[in-house]
Design a protein that fits this description.
Blueprint: E1 2-3, E2 9-11, E3 23-28, E4 34-40, E5 46-54, E6 57-63
Length: 72
């Protein structure tokens, strides 16, 4: 979810947790509107997404292959 400076919701993006009970990590990229979202579930694996916020809408730029190591 993205909030504006007043705390009002401007965008929401649902990413599926394929592992049900993952830990969630975020890594900001150089573009202030891009972030890597990483779902990690220990031995069960991981799944990473690169998402961006454009015109108050989240867009998935890239869905990394399962268990591919991201930049986190």
């Amino acid at each position: 979810m993205a909030l504006d400076n007043n705390g009002d919701k401007i965008a929401l993006h649902n990413l599926k947790d394929e592992f049900i009970d993952s830990e969630l990590y975020f890594k900001n990229l150089t573009d202030e509107n891009e972030v890597i979202v990483s779902f990690t579930a220990g031995q069960d694996g991981s799944r990473d997404f690169c998402i961006t916020l454009v015109n108050n809408e989240f867009i998935t730029i890239h869905k990394f292959s399962r268990n591919q190591t991201s930049c986190l």
